[in-house]
Design brief:
Bound molecules: 3'-phosphate-adenosine-5'-diphosphate
Number of strands: 7
Number of domains: 1
Helix content: 40-55%
Order of helices and strands: HHEEEHEHHHEHEHHHEHHHHHH
Number of helices: 16
CATH class: Alpha Beta
Structural class: alpha/beta
Distance between the termini: 33 Å
CATH architecture: 3-Layer(aba) Sandwich
Largest sheet: 4 strands, parallel
Length: 351
């Protein structure tokens, strides 16, 4: 299990933190330099936050260091992860397009796999990490600075936004289990737009929904095209159902009990009859509920490991199905519905 590093308030620790920060920047600069020539040949487009995105293996990514000197999720970070990351056959990966339920899935699978480890289980007097720290600190993304700086973070349970066809080769060849969560594109888009507005540089004007709608629907968004991301994992789940489990956010909301039992079985930690009879599944669902996690990740907590600029609370907005109708015009809904219908044809993806 990976927890946030403990920070001691002594002069020695302050120097160490500075040095760590320096080392992080040097390592990331080296990675960016390593892929400079490769990135310079990629197709480039304007994107959501007054920046550019680069098309690599069919998907769009921002460039390293364009925002607050952070390289997490950048095209260079993807390339470095592909070159350097080595999966073990026993590893479990949680995959998703951003804003599809990643945080929730991280909490659920982390709670499932560690459920015998913490005193007094999931009660409020428990020492369970999810009661105090972010699911993102419990389950690291492999294409982030924290991970690239310290691959020893690998602890058997990791997450990624990397599309299926761009995953590091060893994840597929070593037969790791992958759980993918998808979500209704309209809610993903609205959630993404809200998130971008929260993380944007204070100096820049807020991002208008109508301005980014066209980019998202034409596939130009970070880690987009959204639909192709889902299709890659959906096809993999049809071809390798014992290795790739395909879940959806809406079904988790509708029938959490059934979905969580399915999830526990798939990752190799099935609930026993006794656990089911004594309400353990419901307790776990409650621990990972939107309300509980939001409370545990209230303002003023340090940013999560995905970035040095994100606050944990940014990952908890409404947590509802269908909230997008409050933001999208009828025409926008029609456009997204048509694209979805055409793209998902024959793939049995429902919401
Ligand atoms: P990420 O990919 O950047 O990590 P991700 O967790 O996939 O983000 O998406 C965040 C969405 O999940 C938010 O949706 P909203 O904007 O429509 O509200 C967030 O509120 C929602 N979310 C986070 N935790 C939960 C939870 N425990 N249950 C349900 N929804 C959740």
């Amino acid at each position: 299990m990976m927890l946030s590093p403990v920070v001691f308030h002594s002069p020695v620790a302050i120097i160490t933190k500075d040095e760590e920060e320096k080392a992080r920047k040097i390592k990331m600069s080296e990675i960016i330099e390593r892929y400079k020539d490769k990135v310079s040949t990629l197709p480039k487009q304007e994107s959501w936050m007054n920046n550019h995105v680069y098309k690599y293996q069919g998907f769009w990514y921002h460039q390293g260091f364009w925002y607050h000197s952070n390289a997490s999720f950048s095209v260079e970070a993807i390339m470095a992860t592909q070159d350097d990351f080595k999966a073990k056959p026993t590893d479990v990966f949680l995959a998703s397009h951003p804003k599809s339920g990643t945080t929730w899935l991280k909490a659920l699978v982390f709670a499932i796999m560690t459920r015998t480890k913490f005193k007094s289980g999931f009660s409020s007097s428990s020492t369970h990490p999810l009661l105090t720290i972010s699911p993102h600190d419990c389950v690291p993304f492999i294409e982030t600075e924290s991970f690239l700086n310290n691959p020893a973070y690998a602890n058997g349970l990791m997450a990624t936004h990397i599309p299926y066809n761009s995953l590091p080769e060893s994840i597929v060849s070593s037969n790791c289990r992958i759980v993918y969560i998808c979500r209704n594109p309209k809610d993903v888009f609205v959630s993404y737009w809200h998130f971008m507005n929260k993380v944007r540089d204070n100096a820049s004007a807020s991002i208008k929904l109508k301005d980014v709608f066209e980019m998202f629907s034409s596939g130009i968004s970070p880690v987009g095209p959204f639909w192709d991301h889902v299709i890659g994992y959906r096809k993999a789940s049809l071809e390798r159902p014992d290795k790739v489990l395909f879940l959806n956010y809406e079904e988790l909301q509708k029938d959490a009990n059934n979905e969580v039992k399915k999830l526990a079985k798939f990752v190799g930690y099935p609930f026993t009859e006794e656990e089911e009879a004594t309400g353990r599944v419901e307790e776990l669902i409650n621990l990972c509920s939107f309300e509980k996690l939001k409370e545990a990740n209230k303002a003023n907590k340090d940013g999560d490991e995905t970035s040095n600029v994100l606050s944990n609370e940014f990952f908890f907005r409404k947590g509802k199905v269908g909230d997008s109708v409050n933001y999208l015009t009828t025409e926008m809904i029609q456009i997204l519905d048509e694209i979805t219908k055409e793209k998902y044809d024959g793939l049995d993806i429902s919401f």
